[in-house]
Batch of 2 targets.
Target 1
Amino acid sequence: MQDIAGFLGSHPPFDAVDAGELARIAAVTESELSPRGQAIFPQGAEPVEYVWMVRSGSVEVIHDGRVLDLLGPGELFGHASMISGLPTGFEARAAEDTVCYRIPADVIRPLLARPDVLRFLSRSIVARAVPATTADQVQVRVATLIRTPPLLCQADEPIRDAARRMTNEGASAVLVPLPGSFGIVTDRDLRGRVIAAGLSPDEPVSAIMTAPAYTVTADRLSDDVLLDMLERNVHHIPVLSPAGQVLGVVDDGDLVAAEGRKPLLLRRAIALADSPAELPAAVAGLDPAIIALHDARVTAEHLTAVRSVVLDALIRRLVELAVRDAGPPPVPFTWFALGSLARREVVPSSDVDSALAWDGPGADGSDAAARYVGRVSRAVDEGLRACGIFPDAHGASAADPIFARSLASWHRAAQSLSDDPTQDKALILVSVLTDSRPVWSSGGPIGGLWEARPGQAGLLRMLARYALSFRPPTGFLRDFVVEHSGERRGQLDLKHGGLIPIVDLARWAGMAAGLASASTLERLQAAEAAGTMESAEAQTLAEAFGFISSLRLDHQVEQLRRGEAPDDFVAPKTLNPLARSYLREAFRAVASVQASLSAELSLGVRWG
């Protein structure tokens, strides 16, 4: 009963109930096991006399044969029929072997006198009345993917005993409770840290556990957690309730189907490559994986992040192989991603820009360091080209000595640009330095290429003006301005006409808010929070960025599907009327924000 009370008390509406009342509810609550596919109650049945809460597994909410929702641990159902006294409006069916707590209606009815509980129930009923779209069904909460209760053991338990219990329970991980956190031991740890390493199975679990384990909350979305796995190179993540109680562990196989797992498999194939010659075959699956994820209606934001994570892995492996061949570096150095890769906004047509910085005693002006990193960067550049990934011919590449220099030299350049933003190509270089992110380092982190400094009013004012350089292609004739001649006649450039203006506005506003290197959406959020951009403007730009990014990806995925080279040019006449309308409004919204900024700058309202 204590377990029932603890679980109920960690989820609404019971989290607002005092201990005595919670114990009374738990005393009459029953556990009900439903095998996969069994109806807990059918659609159109008599009014129910119980309310159910999912304890483990998941429950499908089905209306007229269509799945509207998938409920996971801690979610309540059945209360709409109980409250209204009407027949059930949907079928509740176990999506897998599921345990629910069944609570008598006469026990929960007194709670309805409480306004906070009534508000919770009302919100949940209204939310469930709205059918889920196909995209919504993909974006499931990670708690719904937990298959079994968590398996726990103490830190001093012998590895042999923990492994036996994992086998008996069919679990791929065991958790070790620690003060304020958990340790975790997975089946991979048993193979790699015990069997392969020859460690005695009589050693305590603490000898092989990873602590503290990275955890997520139950309300996180599955694709967010998938990205966490990719970035952290882990395959198991414990899921916690809002109260910090562990609900279970999800692994990469739980998160997505086989097609969606391709990024994880790609990352692993890249890491296992023993030479640059093996990498093109490993990366060949990237575009098919992007197509599959797009078909599964994964958002543009997450698709570009997944592609960025895989490219990060490729660059890291190429640098590792180049360092292996070149020998130990004479000074510590770091490889930086620039541009869209640094912002994690890479699409199939994106170039890969990069820079390199080294540090250490005597690093500034070191010929040996310059020669060494030159050799490494050229090897990486050749490896990327062999994989079909090319730097911008007019962009930044670590293989170019201009973009491979000591950290002190980078900081002097940044100081010079900040002191005199009117110098030739200053704002282009600022955009390069601020859109930077470390990808690989031979030692500890050596710092970023750009250092925030006080007194940057002049630079911010110039960045604001630079954000007005590219204008959305709005016009009076058919509401768009298109290319009038050449190969692109009658087409729109989504990148330069729609996305770059937003990226530049976000960079300026984010730097004004004190945030340099970040994604476009993160910069807009920071600008809104700091007040450097009006809330309505920031939200308008975020919505426009999301829509244009989605349209750009739709276009490029179809080109990949046809075997064509992806580009950013779309003919408006090929879009359906609704998409044309949305695109027109997105362009106009961006132009409106630019016009407002231009007017304020001309009046000296912002930064002088």
Target 2
Amino acid sequence: MTPRTLLASLAATLPLLCTPFALAQHQAFNINPDASTVAFTLASTHEITNGTFHVSKGLVNFDAASPNLSGLIDVSAATGNTGNASRDKKMLNDVLQTSQFADVTFVPQTYTGTLALNGDSTLQVTGIFTLHGTPHTLTVPMQLHIDGNKLTAKTTFKVPYVQWGLKDPSWFVLKVSKEVDVNLTLVGFLAP
């Protein structure tokens, strides 16, 4: 083979060899709403209230070679459920005002830490958390587990809902915490 023929063969083959590697870097985390959970805990002087919300949709785009993220995680505010109908009505109507603010969203923007393309990773994810129509910058610790094309992401964080402008549900002798603890588990699959 002449040097010219060898060079032409390499030039033709190199893009084909590099394409799978390049495509493997760009991933989309497609979140399965039915397998994902949003749990919350709110303390008060009389009890600890536990409840849930439903993830309505989610997609996070990332590149393992870059700290940039994009996408959206959307939670339906109207799905809040604590198992107590009168408390839920007050939460949904008076505090969250779900008729005006139907969604709580998180738009991931960046992460720090090392992202393993298989196995476990611990990251700090920063993005815009929109609650009650107002955006807030939020950084959350995120534990990821990737097994083939399956991904599970877990985080726990506090939301200072009263500081962020929502109504304080405290009244008379019932004093309610001004922060709610959120435990989020996102389950889904990876696609190039």
